[in-house]
Design goal:
- The chain has 101 residues and is α+β, with helices and mostly antiparallel strands.
- It has one domain.
- Helix content is 14%, strand content 35%.
- The protein has two helices and seven strands, in the order αβαββββββ.
- A four-stranded mixed β-sheet has the order 1-2-5-6, covered by helices on one side.
- A hairpin with a 5-residue loop joins strand 3 and strand 4.
Length: 101
């Protein structure tokens, strides 16, 4: 994918919002910060990742909604823009409605 981004085959709009809702995508025990690095590959995008285990969270009616994600123990979600941490959000995020503009 990085090669396709570098070649211009894949282009993200300026201000694009990219969510990695997998576990430990903002940091992990190895010191990797995938979301931060990816935000450097995709300039002007906002890239969010979990700092712990993440999983779908229950919505208001108590049902699990795959659009709502929580990070274990309300661990933060980190959002990076051009390699810089710009936002920290605790608790549940919803990639379909969360915006940074």
């Amino acid at each position: 994918m990085a090669k396709k981004i570098d070649s211009g085959e894949i282009i993200f709009a300026s201000g694009a919002q990219i969510f990695f809702v997998g576990c430990n995508t903002a940091n992990n025990n190895f010191g990797d910060e995938f979301a931060e690095v990816f935000s450097q590959v995709v300039p002007n995008a906002f890239v969010t990742g979990s700092t712990n285990y993440s999983n779908p969270a229950a919505n208001k009616d108590g049902k699990t909604d795959s659009n709502n994600y929580s990070s274990r123990g309300n661990s933060p979600w980190y959002t990076y823009h051009n390699g810089e941490l710009v936002q920290q959000t605790n608790g549940v995020i919803n990639p379909t409605t969360k915006t940074f503009k």
